[in-house]
Amino acid sequence: MSSATDFIVNGTQLIKASKPDRLTILLLILVAAYYVALYFQQKARHYAPGPTPWPIIGNSIPTEKSWLFFHSLCKIYGPIVRLSLAGSEMLILDELEDIEELLGKRSSNYSSRRQLTYAGKYRSVEKRLVLLPYGPLLKKQRAAAFQMLNARVVGGYEGIQERGSIKLITDLLKQPTKAYISIKWYTAETLQTLVYAKRFSEDGNDLRTLLHILETFIQDIHPARHPVDIHPILDKLPDALASWRGEAKEKHGNEFTFYLRLLREVKQRMDNGDNLECFAARLWEDAEKNGLDETSMAYREPIPLPVPHIFEAKPKSSSSSTVAGSAFEAGTDNTAGSVLWALVAMLNYPETMKKAQVEIDRVLGRNSNMPPSFKHFEDLPYCTAFVKEVFRWSPVAPVSAPHQSLQDDVYKGYFIPAGTTVFPNIWAIHHNEKRYPDPFKFKPERFMPENGEKLTTESLNEGHCGFGFGRRVCPGQYLASKSVWMGVVSLLWGFDILPPTDASGKPVLPDPSAVRNGLTAEPDSFDIVMKPRRAIDVDALTQAWAN
Ligand code: HEM
């Protein structure tokens, strides 16, 4: 039998060369065995096609513009593509019929979420609606959300949305360069008023805190953002070797303290005899009936706040905070992002802006001194088509929130194992030439009703898939689309949205494909010139808002 010692007798040079040789051969055998096993497993089970995953690490998924990467794979392998992230199965769906079948018709199997260790287990103590697995807690939280956000009920919130849009206009008149923060303020304050019956303080501290929470959360939920979500075994490491755990818990502490404070303020005001009309008040009233504890309520309506110290989560009190917080969080950024995309569209397609403004002036009068309200909705079909086209042209959630399957399934002959994370590529559907001819062009006309048909506010959510699918469809969709409509028509009424010019006088236009990082897609920062279109009585508007 030859051994390392034999070679030492014959010369050190030889021993150094022979050790790596054996290792290399062993590695080659292991890699070959992996691929052979993979090949036979795939053959036997008929997985969907896709790029061959690397051993151990699997396929790599970019954290930026993942929808474009997914679509490029579908162009090579077909509309259903399989990926693997360190052993976790993933399925990319590029076509609506497959999404409707799996996430819609088979939704009892495809309505869970991939369990994220960083954002789910530690940052959200497993209570945040958007990350919950399919089960009793999800059903409770969604039922409570539905009660407060269904299409019929949101009709009662129109006054809040209209007042919010008046403030948006006055803010922009006073500070025309602050469009970004004014739009975020509009969407966040609308939600804060609905959830906690409270406006932001003038210093904007609460808003800044909320935006910070949202920004980091959107990054944290990307499945490839934190190594522990790719290799869950890392969660076995002790705290000393897993600094990310403390970081996630700290984020939870900060946001939970914020939500809880807002929730408790509402309770305090109710105890003082205030008759509050807001989600949080209803949650307190129905807490027992809904079976939600304080943590669930706090997260479910969306309001994140920065708190200077670390708050250790107490899971036993964890249900009511989440309900309140989730709506606030889930709604603010997506709604604001859609209004920002509308501005990008106005700058790149000024003829559509003009057409919408002509419609508004025809209905309200060129000299109207109050902006549009929901009573004008039916008479503004082009504006409605404009907003729907924004949802299609630049969906703020281009791959939705991925769903996860609970059981093994077979679809179109492909084996889909339990625990597969399914990415419905909303962006790809919205840019499918057959469905929407000339898909990269912003063209509201494609959504104009035929034969003078009257549109209802619910029609804002039809003809595109911007709000997701099946049993996880966005519960805030009816509120959201109306907030976007209100914000966009108010801006169109009050301002010409113009591009700045460079030194040579050429307009500087925002690039519609430039987005901020994350699983969602907000436009990258851009400059605009907001030129008032009419003489607006700011004092009268401010008075209307205050009332
Ligand atoms: C234009 C604005 C909005 C867009 C485009 C949008 C889109 C979406 C999408 C695509 C999903 C994932 C659906 C799926 O998994 O299939 C979602 C989930 C969710 N949205 Fe929205 N949303 C918006 C505004 C809102 C608002 C205003 C609220 C609350 C008031 C809200 C609350 C939620 C919640 C709680 C979830 C998680 C649902 C679950 O996991 O079961 N969203 N939204």
From TrEMBL:
Transmembrane segments: 23-40
Record Pfam families: p450
Pathway: Secondary metabolite biosynthesis
MF annotations from Gene Ontology: heme binding; iron ion binding; monooxygenase activity; oxidoreductase activity, acting on paired donors, with incorporation or reduction of molecular oxygen
Residues that, per the record, bind heme: C474
Essential cofactor(s): heme
Keyword terms: Heme, Iron, Membrane, Metal-binding, Monooxygenase, Oxidoreductase, Transmembrane, Transmembrane helix
SUPFAM superfamilies: Cytochrome P450 (SSF48264)
Family: Belongs to the cytochrome P450 family.
Name of the protein this chain belongs to: Cytochrome P450 monooxygenase
Source organism of this protein record: Neolentinus lepideus HHB14362 ss-1
